[in-house]
Amino acid sequence: MVKSIGKKINTAVFISGRGSNLKSLIKNSKSKNSPIKIKLVISNKKDAVGLKYAKDSKINFSIKNFKKNSISENYILGQLLKEKIEIICLAGFMKILSKNFIKKFNKPILNIHPSLLPKYKGLNTHTRVIKNKEKFTGSTVHLVTSKLDSGKIILQKKLKILKNDTAKTLEKKILKIEHKLYSKAIVKFLANL
Ligand code: GRF
Q1: Model pTM?
Q2: Pick from 5, 89, 158, 159: CA 20 to 30 A from residue 167's CA?
Q3: Which residue among 21, 144, 155 is best mutated to probe the pocket of ligand 1, counting the most ligand atoms within 8 A of its Cβ?
Q4: Bigger pLDDT: 146 or 127?
């Protein structure tokens, strides 16, 4: 990736649902100092609530249902090329991208995961963390590889679990952390390229 001074990096965000991380990424990307410009939003769900943030900010979006993975992925690769996308941020995207997609895109793909990776990969992290009586949890921004939640860690933020915390309270607290952490991790990642 060639970084030219003053030019923002064309970014695509992939979502599946609520899109609160997309909302804060859009908001933060609009600041003059942000290194990214969000040019494309991809959703695998046509009723993803988060799509409204793309619409509100007049960002192009595509919906592909991934019923046939390779067809959806090839269409998306075309869109990414058309919009000259240089980095993808997964934000609550509930599909696993194929090895082929990752190879063909051949540029960085980042993800945010609500646990202190490598602990608690996969779904229902908060419930498992509470059940296991962990003392800390948190969120991680990492690079995406074809292995679930396993790529190089870019940034993590730790949160102390209180006696009365539940999966619900943890979800709320961690989302709040994520809304800052993702943009911070992108800045760190791009600065180190
Ligand atoms: C976040 O907790 C993120 O870490 C995980 O999925 C959730 C997405 O939330 N991958 P939202 O759709 O951004 O509100």
Answers
A1: 0.96
A2: 89
A3: 21
A4: 127
